[in-house]
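Following up on my earlier thread - several people asked me to post the actual chain instead of describing it. Fair enough. Here it is, all 108 residues.
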Amino acid sequence: MPDLTESELIERLCRTFNTRFSGNRNAMQSLAETIENSEMLHPGLRGLGGKAFLASFKDRMNVWQPEEIRVLVIDMLVSLMKEKVTTDSSKRELTAEIDGYLLPIKFW
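Reply from S.P.:
Thanks for posting it. Predicted structure:
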């Protein structure tokens, strides 16, 4: 697979999340599966367990409103990009780009 640009990687991660979430309506499971199934997209994602990565956010998991869950998912994807992909983009730039690709979280 050719090297992806940062924007292409973000788009792929968000599309994968959107697809998984639309199928099961479980945001955290969808994000864990997205991370696990995207390990070939970037060397920083290889061997990274989705559930293990999400465990670092366990203190923020007590959210129930769709918009709060969406903010949490965006924060997790920003963290993934900053910590594992090691981008030079600011958190604000990453948040805006991810926000643009991520579909609204709706449970019904």
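The mean pLDDT is 90. That should answer part of your original question.
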